[in-house]
Amino acid sequence: MRIALYQPDIPQNTGTILRLAACFGFPVDIIEPCGFALSDARMRRAGMDYIDHVDWSRHNSWERFLEQRTSGRLVLLTTKADASLEDFTFKADDILLFGRESAGVPEEVHNQADARVSIPMQSGLRSLNLAVSASIAAWEALRQTGFDRNAPRQSGGEHA
């Protein structure tokens, strides 16, 4: 299972998600352009030293991400979803895709997702914070597919 961030805007959210990914053993794909430099100190501070324990890759465009994708369904977490998180069945090779904090994903990306899933919340509210959404979805996906605390840790690094 992987987490993919589509053009993230807020470095602290990205750092927090990298920390989450390190703790749960998820590789992360960051699809550029980002709203900040990936070397941003705020991202590193939010991720603390956990960033060095996550396998993450940067892709300079959506098209490049799709070219480098090897397998798994693209599961878009969105408020415009076909399914609710509690009814969705995850697979171990799914890619959990999250859009920009400011705008989500464009229609083209939305349409290329294999599944669209929403996190249930009170009506009348717009959305959850990106890092909170990633945490909720990642845990539910792991709960369904199995979480191995003894799995070997990925060593950190950025791949082009």
Description:
It is a single chain. The protein has 5 helices and 8 strands; from the N terminus they run E-H-E-H-E-H-E-E-E-H-E-H-E. The chain has 160 residues and is α/β, with parallel strands linked by helices. It has an 8-stranded parallel β-sheet. The longest helix is centred in the last third of the chain and has 16 residues, at 130-145. It is globular and about 35 Å long. The model has no long low-confidence stretch (mean pLDDT 89).
Keywords, please?
160 residues, alpha/beta, Alpha/beta knot, eight-stranded parallel beta sheet
Number of strands: 8
Give the end-to-end Cα distance, rounded to a whole number of Å.
Answer: 19 Å
Quaternary structure of the protein: single chain
The CATH class is identified as Alpha Beta
- Largest β sheet strand count, sense and barrel closure: 8 strands, parallel
CATH architecture: 3-Layer(aba) Sandwich
Question: Based on helices, strands and strand pairing, what is the structural class?
Answer: alpha/beta
- Lateral arrangement of strands in the main beta sheet: 5-7-4-6-1-2-3-8
Give helix % range. Answer: 25-40%
Low-confidence stretches: none
* Overall pLDDT: 89
